[in-house]
Amino acid sequence: MQYYSTSNRKLRSGLKEAVIRGLAPDRGLFMPVSVPVINRAMLEGFRGMDLTAIAVQLSQVLFGEDIPANELKKITEEAINFDTPLVVVEKGIYALELFHGPTLAFKDVGARFLARLLGHFTRELNEDIHVLVATSGDTGSAVANGFLDIEGIRVHVLYPSGGVTPLQEKQFTTLGNNITALEVQGSFDDCQRLVKEAFMDEELSNQLTLTSANSINLARFLPQAFYYFRAWAQLERGTKAFFSVPSGNYGNMTAGLVAREMGLPVNTFLSANNINDVVASYLLTGRYNPRPSTPTIANAMDVGDPSNFDRILDLFNHKYEWITEHLHGYSFTDTEIREIMGRVYKESGYLCDPHGATGYQAAKSFREEHPEITGIFLETAHPAKFRESIEEVIGSPVELPERLAAFDRLEKKTIEIGPEYKDLKDYLFSVQA
Ligand SMILES: *Cc1c(COP(=O)(O)O)cnc(C)c1O
Prior knowledge:
- The protein is α/β, with parallel strands linked by helices.
- The protein has 20 helices and 14 strands.
- It has a domain at about 85-105 and about 220-400: Rossmann fold (3-Layer(aba) Sandwich), CATH 3.40.50.
- Helix 3 packs across helix 4 (about 70-80), helix 6 (about 140-145) runs parallel beside helix 7 (about 165-175) and helix 12 packs parallel to helix 14 (about 310-315).
- The model has no long low-confidence stretch (mean pLDDT about 95).
- The structure holds pyridoxal-5'-phosphate.
- Pyridoxal-5'-phosphate binds near residues 248 and 381.
């Protein structure tokens, strides 16, 4: 399959080039030239399959032209080695639990897939590939763990010092081997900017093969389409549903919209935000005003200029009326998020994490006007990952799953850098030397 650049539809690349580069040469984002549509028989066949089985079929549809079938099956089965169950929270509202992977966050899906796909493509190269990734929390852990020990790939995780929870930090600063954590004296937006600058730096790219594991890499967000199908397949036949997606950089949302283009019979998507609501404002006013992000308790959504927004515009041919027909925006303050987590826990016993809580409440609000449609909100992280803010609300301890507790016992190792691009560049040159 060919992929075009969102900055210039005529600029095209194959899968290998698009995955290794991450960003198109003109700095646009890669998108499939045409999204393949699955037939009804395949869709119906998904009922009763787990996520892995569905992923094996859909990865053939998306990537089958470019990778030998048995290799692709192996990549998919190794990457997507856990399920995404749909759990009833209350009548008409389900949580799609995306946190059953190794780092207990939905980003495991895309990160593990990308790591193995990249590993496949770089096997023929005789130099290391350097993955640069900026994280506001969960990306770092999912990417670092997804890439750990993959040969030929070195990962450099940039994160805002003090801007992630202690437990998140432990998950990408303790791994060693081919993973290095860069503690940036700045914000998440600084981290994203540094990564972008590195990709634009020709002097650097003449020396190092750099790629990105942020959701700008198409091999990270496309596999996330798989679990939208898995969600649908768990509904009772004939159920009309919408998705509510807690959003930051909008990779998850883009994947859902691609799933829709592939033939998923769902037409409504809710964009749930914290107070970093540039997309919600856009949906209300038609004006897109990126601005610096503000820290919140749902910190993985503290994004002031979502990197996948152009992909969403492209999927709807930049037609505002069309976008607002399918997408509805909601945003919540920290006070509201705390109130939601407490209320849901009290009323149904379900423990939302702060991100999932925004998705839940958006679904709840939308259903007030559309009670006939079932809401599925994406529960993007295990609540224990944000236990500090949750315990405050529910007044009792949140148990730490053993997988997370194990990270907590390890020792953090980071390299500190400033927010200036020169600091990152010096570091990268020193790695190369
Ligand atoms: C990354 C993340 C999000 C936002 O996902 P995007 O694809 O960037 O919109 C939401 N919740 C959690 C827990 C995350 O880690």
